[in-house]
Amino acid sequence: MSRYRGPRLRICRRLGDLPGLTRKTSKKQAPAGEHGQRSRKPSEYAVRLEEKQKLRFNYGLSERQLLRCIKAAKKVQGSTGLVLLQILEMRLDNTLFRLGMAPTIPAARQLVNHGHILVNSKNLSICSYQCKPGDNIEVKNKNGSKMLVERYLNFPGLANIPNHLELNKAQMIGKVNGIIEREWVALQLNELLVVEYYSRK
């Protein structure tokens, strides 16, 4: 299945606050659709599916990409849920979003795809690139690129920059200093339920 291009507020009403997907907030409280008004106790499968969908829509991944990340996380020693979140948080598009260089993850992905971003002084157009400690992320030295990111920096998507990242606003250079810790992940999520969802397959 390809990337989701439909109404984003509908997804937020169903799954809760997804800062990476959109900055808009809905005035309506109930989930979208005629069945959203019913208050039934969800099954265990439905709870796990919802957590998985939160992860998918927030980071803008296809089912295949998320499954690949799960398999990579299982190979690493330690908590699979935590490693999975670290893999997703260290993606280039998410790192740009967390630095405040883009208001949402789809906007960050567009910046990367259109060639506005340099990583370690090299042009990079792969959104899923895994940022490593010591990486320098900068905006291309072109007027259009600088103006666009400057506008985004004035109205960042999230209030705080996580402690593993560092930003020089004047030069528009971000630096990755380490791996993100669990408390700095902006998404309200139980990652163990996502791992359980995939362990059934």
Automatic annotation (TrEMBL):
The keyword Ribonucleoprotein applies. Keywords: Plastid, Ribonucleoprotein, Ribosomal protein, RNA-binding, rRNA-binding. GO terms for biological process: ribosomal small subunit biogenesis; translation. Residues 3-89 form the Small ribosomal subunit protein uS4 N-terminal domain. Residues 35-45 have a biased composition (Basic and acidic residues). Residues 20-45 are annotated as: Disordered. Transmembrane segments: none annotated. GO terms for cellular component: small ribosomal subunit. It comes from the Eukaryota. InterPro entries: Ribosomal_uS4, Ribosomal_uS4_bac-type, Ribosomal_uS4_CS, Ribosomal_uS4_N, S4_RNA-bd, S4_RNA-bd_sf. The keyword RNA-binding applies. Belongs to the universal ribosomal protein uS4 family. This is Ribosomal protein S4. The gene is rps4.
